[in-house]
Design a protein that fits this description.
heterodimer; A: alpha/beta; eight-stranded mixed beta sheet; four-stranded antiparallel beta sheet; 30% helix; B: alpha/beta; 13 helices; binds adenosine-5'-triphosphate; binds magnesium ion
Chain lengths: 330, 333
């Protein structure tokens, strides 16, 4: 069965996550809302990697946190393997955590500096009561280290005794400890140097093949996303503006925001760069506290018409599998 | 173009608990008037320390510039008094850093910070400085400059703060701007705006630019020349076209191969640089890239390859095998 035919492992429908903006420490009066995620739909099939891209503050991390149920969404459904987990009560979350794991951006702050690497990786097993036998747990830690390309001797080291790339591998080993099916990678390689980043990207791909993992890959580096993801969703101010197969999206972007985003990324080739026609998007990203009415991109959009100021465009399938939220492209 | 900056055999060290860190270990390069030179290399390779050494902003202790000359517009900056050096910084040499929030003073208005720079270096009166500040904000593309002058840094977006930093760097008509990761903290579309602005202004005003970045795309789009650093040394130097299309140092070759590209369909696997970055406290007398190098031979353990011209006099590489290697990649590409 190919990835395209596989049933969705995750289906996100109408997801909204609004945070209250309060004023005054004592009164805590609500003066507004941050619409961090404001009506997001997508599916991820088993064994697939979906890329989630967009600029700072567009709601990528919040979307990931909702799926991990680190937040309880304001609205919408998150159907994971047939069950809606959006409103799952706290007591049922532990079981979910075995199946869905996360790898964070910052290898420096996401690992407890006072714990040895081996204990960091063993911790989730202790919490979930698997591999209760200390010897077997140790063996498993060593196996995980070597799966992630680290010498098993690293188990006795502390995080500060390792390089950034090595620490990120420890974060990956810890995420794998419970044999999850699904991993949210939130800027998992962003903090790494290019040379080391390539090693970790390859590791993530190997692990996906070896263990049949499914990833939600959140990143702002579009080149890494193109390399790693089968399908890609582009977010802007809490909404998905375009979603398509990776090569289709990068070669034939349809939404004006995606086009601006892609043209802003320089390619490491001076000859290609010299011939590229490059138009940076004008203006700044508006605040999600007070997003523009209608299409949220209209103040910066080169093709906006009067109607874009009033009507919010829904995602439409303009080509097979290629969804665009813009009323002006056809 | 006439020569503006000539850095000769610069050495900067730090004494740390782990030992002596040779952060900059014999760096030489030049910058012509109006030219954009990029410095690339992995984290810890000495890009920032080499730039800070030019400005003599190395904290001592633990750091020290132990050797070298920095000839700028005919003078050796290493021999200037501290006062004269203060005049150069923010005067003839402007600076733009990665995080504008830490470089700007949070309790002073934007206007005050720009006029301060103008007054300090130009000795002009308040009204003239005020007028200059307005001009500068308009120049860096800030709308409604009169209102912005009265605001504080936290009231501006990251992109606007970086525009203000550029305005301050330009305040005294510098001949050179040193920009250390000027857009790394910014979003892609804002990064593109700021880089275009810097390119446009440096061309129009004939200001030379040293841009430090780890983004190989940014280098390809903006640099005339490129210096590739590894473990405190420049291992390859040349025009952007030469470096990208005919790399001659194994590290440059590996670096270029390891980056995924937005303009190419997914390939099977990336080709990473093997191994780990070097420990700068444990460098020996051999080539420091040797443990990660696919081309290493015995000779590489016994001496450090000097930075020498390849068959192209303007394209330098520090590798014993750069001639053979150049041929090999040419064939592969
Ligand atoms: N707990 C919270 N309370 C209030 N606002 C929040 C909270 N969490 C996130 N936000 C806001 O929601 C918006 C989306 O944030 P989010 O972290 O999801 O963005 P992101 O796309 O991951 O950005 P980045 O690329 O910078 O990581 C931002 O405006 C952010 O300030
Ligand atoms: N104040 C300091 N004390 C001790 N060591 C230092 C100090 N500043 C820099 N170093 C060391 O000098 C070396 C070069 O650092 P530098 O900041 O120049 O690297 P870089 O190439 O700019 O890296 P990055 O891309 O991470 O900014 C590093 O090994 C660093 O740890
Ligand atoms: Mg985020
Ligand atoms: Mg630096």
């Amino acid at each position: 069965m190919t990835v395209a035919e596989a049933p969705p492992l995750l289906e996100v429908r109408g997801l909204r996550m609004h945070f209250a903006v309060t004023e005054g420490i004592l009164s805590g009066r609500t003066v507004g809302q941050v619409k961090a995620v404001d009506g997001v739909d997508f599916t991820i099939r088993r064994g697939e990697t979906l890329g989630l891209v967009g600029e700072s503050g567009c709601g990528k991390t919040t979307t990931g946190r909702c799926i991990l149920r680190l937040e309880t969404p304001t609205e919408g459904a998150i159907i994971y393997d047939g069950v809606d987990i959006a409103k799952l009560p706290r007591k049922d979350l532990l079981a979910l955590r075995r199946r869905i794991q996360v790898i964070f951006q910052d290898p420096y702050s996401s690992l407890n500096p006072r714990m040895k690497v081996g204990d960091i990786i063993a911790e989730p097993m202790m919490v979930h009561g698997i591999e209760r036998d200390a010897k077997r747990r140790d063996a498993r830690v060593r196996e995980l280290l070597s799966v992630c390309g680290l010498n098993p001797k690293f188990a006795d080291r502390y995080p500060h005794e390792m390089s950034g790339g090595q620490r990120q591998r420890v974060g990956i080993a810890r995420a794998l400890a419970l044999q999850p099916e699904f991993i949210v990678c939130d800027e998992a390689v962003s903090a790494l140097d290019v040379s080391i980043q390539a090693q970790v990207v390859n590791l993530l791909e190997d692990l996906r093949e070896r263990f049949g993992l499914t990833y939600l890959f959140i990143a702002h580096d579009l080149s890494v996303v193109r390399h790693l993801c089968q399908r890609v969703a582009v977010m802007y101010l809490g909404r998905i503006v375009e979603l398509a197969d990776g090569d289709e999206l990068f070669d034939h972007p349809l939404h004006p925001y995606t086009q601006a985003l892609l043209s802003a990324v320089p390619v490491p080739d001076p000859t290609v760069e010299a011939t590229r026609n490059f138009r940076p998007a004008k203006g700044e990203i508006p605040s999600p506290i007070n997003p523009p009415p209608g299409c949220v991109f209209h103040p910066r959009c080169p093709i906006a018409v009067e109607n874009c100021k009033h009507a919010r465009p829904e995602l439409r399938e303009l080509r097979p599998g290629h969804w665009v939220a813009c009323s002006e492209v056809h | 173009m006439p020569l503006l900056l000539d850095v000769r055999d610069l050495h900067t060290e730090f004494r740390t608990g782990a030992g002596l860190v040779r952060a900059v270990d014999g760096v030489s390069y030049t910058v012509d008037q109006g030219e954009t030179v990029a410095i690339v290399g992995e984290s810890g390779s000495g890009k920032s320390v080499s730039a800070m050494s030019i400005l003599r902003l190395i904290p001592d202790p633990p750091g020290r510039i132990t050797q070298g000359q920095i000839l700028f517009a005919g003078r050796d900056l290493m021999r200037l008094s501290d006062d004269a050096m203060r005049e150069v910084r923010g005067g003839e040499i402007g600076m733009v850093f990665q995080e504008p929030m830490t470089s700007l003073n949070p309790v002073l208005t934007i206007g005050r910070q720009i006029t301060e720079a103008v007054e300090q270096h130009r000795g002009v009166d308040w009204a003239t400085a005020q007028k200059r500040a307005l001009e500068l904000l308009a120049l860096v593309g800030i709308a409604d400059p009169a209102r912005r002058l009265k605001q504080y840094p936290h009231q501006l977006s990251g992109g606007m703060r970086q525009r203000v930093m550029i305005a301050i760097a330009l305040a005294c008509d510098p001949k050179l701007i040193i920009a250390d990761e000027p857009t790394t903290a910014l979003d892609v579309t804002i990064q593109a705006q700021i880089l275009e602005l810097m390119k446009d202004l440096t061309r129009r005003l004939n200001v030379a630019l040293i841009i430090i970045t780890h983004n190989l795309g940014v280098v390809a789009r903006y640099a005339n020349r490129v210096n590739v650093m590894y473990a405190g040394r420049i291992v390859e130097s040349g025009s952007a076209a030469a470096i990208y299309h005919r790399p001659r140092h194994p590290y440059t070759i590996a670096l270029l191969r390891s980056v995924p590209r937005l303009d190419r369909p997914r390939q099977a696997k990336l080709d990473p640089v093997d191994g780990q970055p070097p420990d700068l406290t444990r460098l020996d007398g051999g080539c420091s890239f040797r443990p990660r190098c696919r081309f290493a031979v015995d000779a590489c353990a016994h001496g450090r390859p000097p930075l020498e011209a390849t068959d192209d006099a303007a394209h330098l590489a520090a590798c014993f095998r750069s001639r053979e290697i150049g041929g090999a990649t040419g064939a592969a590409a």
